[in-house]
Amino acid sequence: MQRIALAIAVLAAAALAPHAARAQSAPVTLDCSLASNFCAVSVDSPSSPTPLKIWWSFDTSGTDAIFPRDCTHQETCSFWCPRYEGAIAASVQVRDAANVLIGSASAQAVCTQQDIVLP
Q: What local confidence, expressed as pLDDT, does residue 53 receive?
């Protein structure tokens, strides 16, 4: 019962927080609103030399977030919280092949024991 109450509280907090963020002058979007334990970055910069360099960072304070694989240079990042669920702050920085900054973005994500489709 306590776990259900925690899940409801986490989802309520997630509903109130902005999930997708777009940097003001950059073509980078970070979206963590589709499901718990998942974030995706999209880049709208067709003239940048590829491959893109994607650097992720997370503030996992108050949770025991685990990242099962290295997200560096990946367009998506997955994680989960085996015992201490909650909101985490996700940030991403994108650079082109010449190491020129294309943009960055931040968003709130929800870290849970099991994946949940968010409303």
A: 96
